[in-house]
Amino acid sequence: MLIHEIIKNQLKNVVEKEISAVVKLCETIDDSWSKTVLIIRDCKGKVVVSGVGKSGNICQKIAASFTSTGMPSIFIHPTEASHGDLGLLESRDVLITLSASGQTTELLDIVQYASRLKVPIIIVTKNPTSSLAHFADIVLQIPDFPEAGINGLAPTTSTTCQLVLGDALAIAVMSLRGFTSENFKEIHPGGNLGARLVPVKNMMYVDDRMPLIDLSASIKEAIIEMNSKSLGCVGIINHRNQYVGIFTDGDLRRSLEAEVSLEEPVSQHMTPSPLSISPDLTMSELLIFFKEKGVPNVFVVKDKIPIGIIHIHQLASISSMNAT
């Protein structure tokens, strides 16, 4: 078992070092960060992100985060930039470069070109006095922490700080630009994220699929309607078609245990003032609703009129998405 303890200690050491670096990063947040957010928010073109090696990998994630939250962004590899891709950079863009040392020579061409175009340049680096920082309009300094590897060479703490910094910028810009969940849904129509943002009105059972009976109906009629729709409940409506109660499997069991006559009005045994939801509630929000309320189904109501019903079984796929 000794080998397992050694491995676990190594794992903890790496995680602890990276946590310490991120904590220090949080302490460095100043006006230069907020200025960067405002520059990106006001950008009329796109955000161009560039870096090499592991920093280049982080650049791709940052560019993807900006794009997916409503701010067009691309990654340009500095070597490809020097061989023609500089043409992708326009005067209305913003350039963000990542270089832990601030001395990455491969970035020199794109930084100099951006400077000539008067493109705002943001450098993310440990070294605010480096050669690349000389060209920057804003320097965002990440902590000069040792990398977490045994020899201190493999990029770990530095790339983690770059990633967290990029996430912070993207989310702050998204907030200032007023990017809503509706906007998010429009550009994420597929996959898990898109499914979570689908409104309830697109998934609910409607019309003849809804189990509904009149307030004057008997328990027997409620049972018949409940069985025909197989949703474990029946909604009760008044003469104005307003949703005033619900009769569930649980209510039925309690009625049978009390040996209540099935000819009695269901209104005497229903749950009054029942829970209901808006048709604009998202499926993700509905999942939270079901977890908090502990009910298996709920009617969708608009202006007091039931327009649909949704069962927790319809959320099976959404639940699995949230678990992954």
From TrEMBL:
GO molecular function: arabinose-5-phosphate isomerase activity; carbohydrate derivative binding; metal ion binding
The CBS domain, residue ranges: 203-264, 270-324
Name this protein carries in UniProt: KpsF/GutQ family protein
Organism name: Aphanothece sacrum FPU1
Domain SIS residues, every copy: 36-179
Entry keywords, A to Z: CBS domain, Metal-binding, Repeat, Zinc
Family: Belongs to the SIS family. GutQ/KpsF subfamily.
PANTHER family (UniProt xref): ARABINOSE 5-PHOSPHATE ISOMERASE KDSD, PTHR42745
Site annotation Catalytically relevant: residues: K54, E106, E147, H188
CDD domains: CBS_pair_SIS_assoc (cd04604), SIS_Kpsf (cd05014)
Binding site for Zn(2+): H77
One Pfam family here: CBS
Keyword match Ribonucleoprotein: no
Example of a GO biological process term: carbohydrate derivative metabolic process
UniProt xrefs under InterPro entries: CBS_dom (IPR000644), CBS_dom_sf (IPR046342), GutQ/KpsF_isomerases (IPR050986), KdsD/KpsF-type (IPR004800), SIS_dom (IPR001347), SIS_dom_sf (IPR046348), SIS_Kpsf (IPR035474)
NCBIfam families in alphabetical order: kpsF
